[in-house]
Amino acid sequence: MLKFGVLLALVAPCFCKHLEPAFVSGVPSVRGGRPGSSRLLATATSVKPSVYEEFGVTDVLNAKPFSLPPLPWDPMSLGGISKETIAYHYGKHHATYVRKLNGIAKEKPEIAAMSLEDVVKKSDGAVFNNAAQIWNHNFYWNCLKPNGGGTPTGPIAQKINEAFGSFEAFKEQFSARAAGHFGSGWVWLVQGADGKLNIVDGHDAANPVRDGGDKPVMVIDVWEHAYYIDFRNARPNYINAFFDSINWDFVNSQLA
Amino acid sequence: MSFLSSVPCAMADGDFYKLPDLPYDYGALEPSIDATTMQLHHDKHHATYVKKLNDALKEKKPRATNLADLQAEAMKLGSTVRNNGGGAYNHALFWRMMAPVGKGGEPSEALQKAINAVWGSKEGFQEAFSKAATAVFGSGWAWLIVKKGGLEITTTPNQDNNLMISGSGIPILGIDVWEHAYYLKYNNRRPDYVKEWWKVVNWSEVNNNYENYALKGIPVPA
Q1: Fewer CB under 10 Å: which end of chain A, C or N?
Q2: Do A232 and A193 fall into the same domain?
Q3: Residues of B annotated in the binding site for Mn(2+), as ranges?
Q4: Domains of chain B listed by start with CATH number
Q5: How many Å apart are CA A242 and CA A145, to the nearest integer?
Q6: How far apart are CA B135 and CA B177, in angstroms?
Q7: DSSP A6-61
């Protein structure tokens, strides 16, 4: 408990800088990982405990060694992505990955002693799949916010213009990659070691953290469970809804 | 002129393959698979695979003249043909491998004997198959295949199937575990979907796939 308190005090100010006061997000960063839980330190005062009870995840929020992070926003208020989707996506899929990884950690103490990021970097098979999916979803929820979207401002806007020519060109390319990804996976906006932005596809649970090099800056989940309830097979409509909900403050905060 | 004379009728209008109709109404597999899913799955997903395959094959000329034979070339013809050719084939079989509850019959004596040889019983086979289908991570299929005269359970990612890799077996039964196959009714509960799917397995078709095609080393036609 003391360790947690110290952790909070050390990390919270860094992550607060670019974010709304509504939540503190200790998003797993590529540089440095700490042992123990999944590092999401959000207090998320805008989300009532009753939401977590309704979703059946109160136990997983407090689980060890890996826990489900609180949502950074109230699922009632998130644009074209419905509460029902969040109830399943966060409350079932994301929560189940956490439960599964904790189940694995029970059998393998070496996993229990690692940070989530280290598990992602060093594991394979089912261990990797569950850990990476936790990491990916942790990151994804932070990329969204109620009344988000629009044209970005700040460093990300400049970087987008440098890499893609314009925001419109970026949106077109990113959307095409997201629509065109075959099967399950994620489409990432990353910042390379040279500081430039790039778009990368990851299949199933694959993410840039695994290989290092690229720093994740934004992600869209294109597993069908992310959009089937709200958009059926029409993934492009989901991608538009995603763009209408992007948390550009968070994206800015992820730039090196 | 000699080229035209070797082109089968299906290519005359430019399309390699025509989307087959469902063998039954959208609601025929209720309650195991809901009507809305069947409609979306066939009219949108399957139809899109067929369209994209036909478009791709206007550029690339395969040696195969039918969809079943195309599978063996799919990996060489690029990812669009692989993904959509696989999708078109897998789904063409999938609809026929299902029948309304109570109409699917049972494994034939020959098939049951082959099942027992590997899994001891029909229940043993179902348990092993269900486990494999549930364990697929991401999008894919679980299959019962015939390989070197014997039965095996395999899983494939995305829209791949065993016909794509020479010698790796001939599928006679398969379950689609892409989320679009079950999400509207079952959400994340894939094990429930798999359990209900057994009620609509069309064993008559599987028997036919086994005896008239796979045992003879021939892929099941699409």
Answers
A1: N
A2: yes
A3: 41, 91, 176, 180
A4: 109-216 (3.55.40.20)
A5: 10
A6: 10
A7: HHHHHHHHHHHTTS-TT----PPPSS---SSS-------TTS-HHHHHHHT-HHHH
Please give the single-letter amino acid code of residue A110. Answer: E
Question: Is position A192 within any domain?
Answer: yes
Question: How far, in Å, CA of A114 to CA of A104, rounded?
Answer: 12
* Total domains in the fold of chain A: 2
Residue A213's CATH number: 3.55.40.20
pLDDT at B42 over 50: yes
Residue in A170, A90, A96, A151 with CA at minimum distance from that of residue A126: A96
Which of these three, A89, A120, A142, is where a domain ends?
A142
B208 reaches A (C-beta below 8 A): no
Can you give the pTM of this predicted structure?
A: 0.89
For residue A45, the model assigns a pLDDT of 53
Which range of residues forms the domain containing residue A109?
Answer: 23-142
| Chain A positions in Cβ-Cβ contact with residue B45 (cut-off 8 Å) | 233
Helix (H) or strand (E) holding A163: helix A155-164
Picking from B24, B10, B80, B40, the residue whose alpha carbon sits closest to that of residue B178 is B40
